[in-house]
Specification:
There is one protein chain. The chain is of the alpha/beta class. It has helices at residues 6-18, 34-41, 75-82, 91-98, 143-150, and strands at 25-26, 48-57, 62-68, 85-88, 115-119, 128-131, 137-141, 153-155. Strands 1, 2, 3, 4, 5, 6, 7 and 8 form an eight-stranded mixed sheet that branches. The chain starts with 5 loop residues before the first helix and ends with a strand.
């Protein structure tokens, strides 16, 4: 197996602890956007698990929303689930909270614990793909495994 970049290896190490057999793949082309990722792995855009980080107000907590690549997050619905106003986080806040840059934020392996919400629409797919630490790294899993490894709460986000 090829050597992974440090950020992708960090994700692989976390995945290995779950012993579910997930393998990080680093692609030759970008998977930064849901459309790019879907084209790169040969799946529908809806099967891409977008990781979006929000900042709560006034408590300044990081919240991770894992959303189907074909959906747009309704911030009011997430705010209702969180119990606070939320705003999209800037790149510095995302890196500080997760340890990863925007475009490669995985669902696991973050710098600090995050409250996680999973788009209920993700459960309709037999398999999904998530980012794995950089814009070219992904891994395949099932929606049930996503819920298990993140401890996330399934909610309607659109």
């Amino acid at each position: 197996m090829a050597t992974l970049t440090p950020s992708a290896q960090k994700v692989q190490d976390v995945l290995d602890r779950f012993a579910l057999g997930h393998q990080v793949q680093e692609l030759e082309r970008s998977a930064r956007s849901a459309a790019e990722a879907a084209a790169a792995v040969g799946c529908s855009v809806g099967q891409i698990a977008k990781s979006l980080v929000f900042r709560t107000e006034p408590s300044n907590r990081a919240v991770l929303v894992i959303c189907s690549g074909s959906n747009r997050v309704d911030e009011r619905k997430v705010a209702d689930a969180v119990g606070e106003t939320i705003r999209k986080a800037d790149a510095d806040f995302v890196r500080d909270a997760t340890g990863f840059a925007i475009g490669g934020v995985p669902p696991v392996g973050h710098a600090r614990p995050l409250e996680v919400f999973i788009d209920a629409d993700m459960l309709a797919y037999p398999e999904i793909w998530a980012a794995a630490g950089n814009p070219n790294a992904v891994f395949r899993l099932t929606p049930a495994e996503l819920v298990k490894i993140t401890g996330g709460r399934v909610v309607a986000v659109q």
